[in-house]
Design goal:
This protein has 374 residues and is an alpha/beta fold. The protein has two domains: 119 residues, Aspartate Aminotransferase, domain 1; 249 residues, Type I PLP-dependent aspartate aminotransferase-like (Major domain) (Aspartate Aminotransferase, domain 2, 3-Layer(aba) Sandwich). It is built from twelve helices and 13 strands. It has a seven-stranded mixed beta sheet with strand order 2-8-7-6-5-3-4, with helices on both faces. It has a four-stranded antiparallel beta sheet with strand order 9-10-13-12, covered by helices on one side. Helix 7 links the parallel strand 6 and strand 7. The two termini are 23 Å apart. The model has no long low-confidence stretch (mean pLDDT 97).
Length: 374
């Protein structure tokens, strides 16, 4: 199979990930639940994973790296720690439902900085205009999961620092591909999955907590610490990690992060961006195919959307699937992004690359789409 759906989950992973998970399943128990060797091995693995993530994302204290079940879990923790019911919040026009649905549930007034697709200056100008005194928080995706559009998060974060407004960053499509510096950005929180460009298994994620933040737990329960207390501990990571850890998942995530560190984010991005440019050129040459690609490749990652004439996007996705080419079609859980780009009614077909894709696979996709378009 040709797998072009890494924006959802990187199916192809380093072999070390599965080996680490198997080892953990057979030899590790739960951290903080005993002084015996299986529990201590689990605790060591969990710490090493926090430490590796802290190094990769420039988090001063590894204890501020929280394990979650996915990016949605991480973003819910972040949003519900900062935003109060009825608050006014500014978001980008490219947010995922993992951001917009929690805000809707809180009854927030949401101001949308849409800008123009692939135009960072217009997005920044909208944030500058909308971040007014009544705004209590900014939530922004780093990269659009539909179009691969890189938002100017460094400048947006600078606006927030200047106006003393907390910012939450959704790094679901950027962690492992673009450099992320928690200290330099000054974010309140950064949420990310483990199963996308960090090459970890499904069911893993991370929440990076900024200095001085007082997060609110979504769950209360056992932590292996301060068991006499009937309140959750007031220190991290215990405050946000109630219940048994997914140690096989954490062991796999550790190996995924190590893979990213060894290969290098810059090299991974270069490879994905090269494939994106190749795919955009090839698809654009096919009559009836509309491609959503940036003129400047530096504002797009390895995610590319397109449409084929008047064909239903789901139909195109199914026909590609029958040719053993895996893509994602529809609205991608991101109606804000489609509304911003004018594709809300039609949706798009999305291809998204990883470090394991190559040019021959792109050429095969272009050939199949050419036949479908005809």
């Amino acid at each position: 199979m040709i797998y072009f759906d890494s924006g959802a989950t990187t199916l192809q992973k380093p072999a070390t990930v599965a080996r680490a998970m198997a080892t953990a399943a057979g030899k590790m128990a739960s951290p903080g639940r005993g002084g015996h060797r299986p529990a201590m091995l689990a605790a060591e693995t969990a710490f090493l994973c926090r430490q590796a993530a802290a190094e990769l994302f420039h988090v001063e204290d590894p204890e501020n790296v929280i394990f979650t079940s996915n990016a949605t879990h991480a973003l819910n923790l972040a949003i519900k720690s900062v935003v109060r019911p009825g608050d006014t919040v500014v978001v980008s026009g490219y947010e995922h439902n993992a951001v917009t649905r929690p805000l809707e549930a809180l009854g927030c007034t949401v101001k949308v900085a849409r800008g123009t697709l692939f135009d960072q200056e217009s997005v920044l100008a909208d944030f500058d205009r909308l971040i007014t005194p009544e705004v209590s928080c900014v939530v922004c995706t780093h990269v659009s999961n539909v179009f691969g559009f890189i938002l100017p998060v460094e400048q947006i974060a600078a606006l927030c620092r200047e106006r003393r407004i907390p910012i939450i960053l959704d790094a679901s499509q950027s962690a492992g591909v673009l450099p992320i510096d928690m200290e330099a950005l000054g974010c309140a929180y950064i949420g990310m999955p483990g199963h996308k460009s960090l090459y970890g298994p499904q069911g893993t994620g991370l929440l990076l907590c900024g200095k001085g933040q007082k997060p609110c737990p979504l769950l209360e329960g056992g932590t292996g610490s301060l068991s006499r207390m009937q309140e959750m501990p007031d220190f991290l990571p215990d405050r946000l990690e109630a219940g048994t850890h997914n140690i096989p998942g954490i062991a796999g995530l550790l190996e995924g992060i190590r893979y990213v560190q060894s290969k290098g984010e810059e090299k991974i991005l270069w490879q994905e961006r090269r494939l994106t440019v190749e795919a955009a050129r090839g698809l654009s040459a096919i009559p009836k195919v509309s491609v959503y690609a940036a003129h400047d490749p530096n504002v797009q990652t390895g995610v590319l959307s397109f449409r084929v004439g008047g064909m239903d996007c789901e139909t195109v996705g199914e026909r590609l699937g029958r040719q053993d080419i895996a893509v994602r079609a529809g609205l991608h859980c991101a109606p804000y992004a489609h509304q911003s780009a004018g594709t809300l009614e039609s949706g798009t077909v999305r291809i998204s690359f990883s470090a394991f894709n190559n040019s021959a696979e792109v050429r095969k996709l272009i050939s199949v789409i050419n036949r479908i378009a005809k």
